[in-house]
Amino acid sequence: MRNTFSNAFTLPIAALFLSSFALYGCDGAASNPAPSDAAHEGHDHEGHKHDAQTPDAQTAPAQTTDDHGATTVLGEQTSGGFTVRASRDGVVIEGAEAAIDVWITGGTTKVSSVRFWIGEESGAGSVKAKAELEADNWHTHAEVPKPLAAGSKLWIEIHDDANVKSVVGFDLKQ
Predict the structure, then answer these.
(1) In this predicted model, which residue has the larger pLDDT, 66 or 30?
(2) Where are the alpha helices (DSSP H) in the chain?
(3) Neighbouring C-beta atoms of residue 85, cutoff 10 Å
């Protein structure tokens, strides 16, 4: 009888004790993440705003700043009837992430998905990141390969609603 009472009492106490670790982080602070909307899941936006203006490769300043670091305008290209402008934030560091923003205009079809990667056009050794549509631009954090091969670029793969794929590459301007 004593073992039954002891087990019935000890197990709930142990469970309560262990569950407290799920509520508090290593530093003792409560780990209650701030709510986010579905369009911004996957990366932190606390204290961060995306500029709703589209950079113009001809007139935008080469450097602006936000919480990801200095913004570098990478240029403008056309592919598949779309005009594609790209920028990256911060310094490109091997083995880290690079915050990427892309503006896609024109075209006779609607863009259905956009993926970014840094490296070779083939994607070998890189991780393709699916971008999310924000106010008027596509955004994601692309992993930078380690090591980063000489001549690596930011590659943007656009899929339209007619299931046609277009790919453009931009110099990283390091």
Answers:
(1) 66
(2) 2-23
(3) 21
